[in-house]
Design brief:
Elements: H1 2-15, E1 41-45, H2 58-63, H3 67-81, E2 85-89, E3 99-110, E4 121-131, E5 134-145, H4 156-178
Parallel strand pairs: 1-2, 1-3
Antiparallel strand pairs: 3-4, 4-5
Length: 181
């Protein structure tokens, strides 16, 4: 009995770190004036909103509530990997000082015929980069996915989240290639 308790204690202690995550994408510290990344600092929203002009089906908005979080998360990851410093806030004004990245989900569709036939799920975003209130550049991107292997057995929200990841990477690549910052 004593050995069983000892084994259980060791197992619990060794597993206690499993499943923990660290969000390394949080970078909101103010850089010093001699920091080379000062010019590569961007302010963006914690959660990407749906565009007020979008015509996204209500079932997607209500059931896929994490899409905005996913777009912001993957955009941040892509930008940080490219050497950008990200200031995450709950409200961004295009007219604010500095570089402000405004992203909106402008469309999302999830068709499904049922059965073993998978139809594409698509999402479109629009990203606008402002510097001191002036529009610098705009990016519009659409990604469509059938969900990959066994996509017809996946829910449409998980497939749309794949699109969110791809679009977040697309925004990072757009800023890197355009050298707008």
């Amino acid at each position: 009995m004593k050995n069983l308790a000892m084994i259980m204690t060791v197992v619990c202690l060794s597993l206690s770190g499993c499943g923990s995550t660290t969000d390394n994408s949080v970078q909101s510290a103010v850089p010093s004036s001699n920091d080379a990344s000062v010019g590569k600092q961007i302010t963006m929203l914690n959660i990407t909103p749906y565009s007020p002009n979008s015509n996204i089906p209500a079932h997607i908005v209500s059931r896929c509530s994490s899409l905005g979080t996913q777009v912001s998360h993957y955009t941040r990851q892509s930008l940080i990997a490219s050497g950008y410093r990200i200031n995450r806030i709950d409200s961004v004004d295009a007219m604010s000082r500095g570089k402000n990245l405004l992203i909106e989900i402008t469309d999302a569709q999830a068709e499904n015929a049922g059965g073993l036939v998978a139809f594409g799920k698509s999402m479109t975003i629009e990203a606008k980069l402002y510097e001191n209130g002036e529009l610098i550049d705009t990016y519009k991107g659409t990604r469509k996915s059938n969900g990959g292997m066994f996509g017809n057995f996946k829910g449409y929200c998980s497939v749309l989240e794949r699109n969110a990841k791809a679009l977040g990477n697309d925004v990072g690549n757009w800023l890197q290639k355009k050298k707008v910052i």
